[in-house]
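@channel sequence for tomorrow's demo:
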Amino acid sequence: MIATAPVCVWLVGAELGEGPVWHAREEMLYFVDIKGGAIHRCAADGSRRQSWAAPRAPGFIVPCDDGDFVCGLQGGLYRFSPAAGSFSLIQAVETDLPGNRLNDGFVDGRGRLWFGSMDNAEEQPSGALYRWESPRGLSPQDRDYVITNGPAVSPDGRTLYHTDTLARTIYAFDLDDAGTLSRKRVFAKIEGSGYPDGMAVDAEGYVWIALFGGWRIERFSPAGILMEAVQLPCANVTKLAFGGQDLRTVHVTTAWKGLSPDERRQQPLAGGLFSFVAGTPGLAQHQLITKQSTTEVEK
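structure tokens (generated this afternoon):
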């Protein structure tokens, strides 16, 4: 299902590139560098580049229905305005767990935000899966993760996928109209090298999973069967997003985090943003519905 081989469109040098999202109205891709404390934006071909410094480690960025964005920063959900370069608090998260930070996030078809937290030291099972929506607010949905990753939803909106990275396991949950999860079960386990990181679902319901330390993305059928793999020229592949006018351009974030000096010399493109064309389109990026008031705190 791959029409072209991956190419690096921006040698951005992200220590921990993550969270690519395609903004169709702007025709721009947004993504974050968690360890580098930055938010990046570029066109589909890697041009028209712009970056902003985040006040705390940004785990993800998602578009809102009013034109701004919400970022999952360490300690809370923040509204981000690209025009002003400002961040304003929406919802504090896990302020009682200073060793935790927020990680991957996703907006479903009903405008609800799903995201995970994790132990920044990657040792303790202090992480959780959360749902946030306006006006109901924050609700924990699952717990006891060291590293959470990859919330994503099937095309019919009835199945939510979520990853326990260190267990190398992707779970599936039933998802109802009210946003309640049930029937947690194993969707797939990763065999061979690498740990499951971020993911995306295509229009046929196939689940694409980036493998940190695995040099590849794996594509699974809705039944959890591995169908094919996309090889990348660097080891730490973190997440992918479908974009472009036909949603067939796949953008992939990578990281140089954890590489030795020798490995970095051998992988000069590590931390770059890649793209390739897929034979199957992805799903459109949903917008987060947010009507809560915010208070500007930092620029």
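heads up for whoever presents: The radius of gyration is 17 Å.
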